[in-house]
Amino acid sequence: MGTGQLATLIMQGFDGPIYPIHPTEKTVLGLEAYAHIEDVGEVPDMVVMVLPTGIVPGLLDDCGKVGIKARWSPRAASARWVAKASRWSAS
């Protein structure tokens, strides 16, 4: 699902920086991929999480640590990580 959304973003002509995060791949659709958000080297404006909901809470923490203010997950939100995201946003 995430690769399809990334492909659509590229095909639509998005011209801003894109930093795919993938734990094992070095490239995704021809773009350099990073194992962790901390590896990017700059603070992205936004993160789009196309992930299983069970791993989202930890990644929200990682995003907060590097200073990312905006995040979006197109998957249905579970009450558990929505509550976590609300606490993170308040700090």
What characteristics describe this protein?
single chain; two-stranded parallel sheet; 4 strands; 91 residues; Rossmann fold; alpha+beta; 36% helix
Characterise the protein shown here.
The structure is a single chain. This protein is α+β, with helices and mostly antiparallel strands. It has one domain: Rossmann fold (3-Layer(aba) Sandwich), CATH 3.40.50.720. Helix content is 36%, strand content 11%. The chain has helices at 2-11, 56-66, 79-90; strands at residues 27-28, 31-32, 46-48, 70-72. The strands form two sheets. Strands 1-2 form a two-stranded antiparallel ribbon. A two-stranded parallel sheet has the order 3-4. Strand 3 (46-48), helix 2 (56-66) and strand 4 form a beta-alpha-beta unit. Helix 2 runs parallel beside helix 3 (79-90). The longest helix has 12 residues, at 79-90. It is globular and about 30 Å long. The N and C termini lie far apart (31 Å). The mean pLDDT is 82.
